[in-house]
Here is the input.
Amino acid sequence: MTSSATELKGPSEASGGVPGRRRRLRQGSLARRIWVLAAGITIVVVGILISPLPGPGFTILGPAGLALIATEFIWARRLLRDIKRRSRVVTRRTDSLAQRTSRWWVPPVVVGYWCGVVALAEFSPIPRFLVWAVSFPIFMPVALWAWATLRYRASLNAPAVEPRPGKGARVAVGPEETSGAQELPGGNGSAEGRVS
Here is the structure.
């Protein structure tokens, strides 16, 4: 009886191997991993290729491609985690600098940076594409500082917001708001039964 059961199951299933359905799923997973890897590498390569053009280029597309690859590969997750860990140090330093900086420094610094980049691209012997390719990644810490400074200063000047009443809570109506109110027929005299 056991030999016929073994014959019906097939050799891989009888020996404790992976059943046919699981094998197909695993092959589908392999195909998915290959497509994710190809798409992620394509995004990174496109970022590298367009980095000489004005715009962020690799600064945005590099991490995006790596994040896509990290959805399927452990080595990419580790690399992404290492990059995040290193960026936390930069973020902490930027926040401490932002707390000591007036918000009025942000526009002159940002405009001065880009004026310097344009001057360097126009009047230096360095090739323009190289100046633009390098200027955007170097600007990222400046942009982070500017954003953190404006965010921190805005949080200091923000008015305190009173909590809104929850669902079903009654809002107190002052006498100045009910002066011209009329009571609806059959009303109970409360603020809910009045119409302005």
Remarks:
- Strands lie at 182-183, 194-195.
